[in-house]
Design brief:
Layout lengths: L1 E4 L2 H10 L2 E8 L2 E8 L1 E3 L2 E7 L2 H8 L2 E11 L2 E13 L6 H11 L7 H5 L12 E17 L4
Length: 150
């Protein structure tokens, strides 16, 4: 197997194709990783979420990373990590950004389901507090694995 680094534009192309990712955040030296639905555009990753541990942690420590995989086989894959900063998009102050995030996310099938499904176990829909946030990307890195077989 051969492993090569991806350049910036290759990393961003993978982010643009992704609908799901893993969000990594931390608080008091404890990491926390969760799956999230995403939409990428320019220097931002947009996310619809519900209020919970990841939001509370990111409010305290806004430094986060997002990891995306494209896997065709065990020897044909790509992985991208975007480092950045959590930015919550409160309703009144960021109405345009929230509408933009919704527009981008709505292009994904069931864009809201991952965020809401767990909360539905314990709460009625009207009790679920949802929000939008984005991650302002500061750097991207990536690797691609390919088979050396002919």
């Amino acid at each position: 197997m051969r492993i090569d680094e991806l350049n910036d534009s290759e990393c961003r192309a993978i982010l643009a194709r992704a609908g799901m990712a893993h969000l990594g955040c931390s608080l008091n030296d404890q990491p926390y990783i969760v799956p999230i639905g995403i939409a990428y555009e320019a220097d931002y990753i947009y996310v619809f979420s519900t209020l919970g541990q990841k939001i509370n942690w990111m409010r305290s420590n806004p430094k986060v990373c997002v990891q995306v995989d494209e896997t065709r086989s065990q020897s044909d894959w790509a992985s991208v990590i975007a480092n950045g900063e959590f930015q919550e998009l409160p309703e009144r102050q960021f109405e345009d950004e929230r509408n933009h995030a919704r527009k981008l996310l709505q292009q994904r099938h069931y864009w809201w389901l991952n965020a809401v499904a767990e909360r539905r176990i314990r709460l009625r829909d009207e009790e679920i507090k949802s929000l939008f946030f984005r991650i302002r990307i500061s750097s991207v890195t990536g690797l691609r694995g390919t088979s050396e077989e002919k």
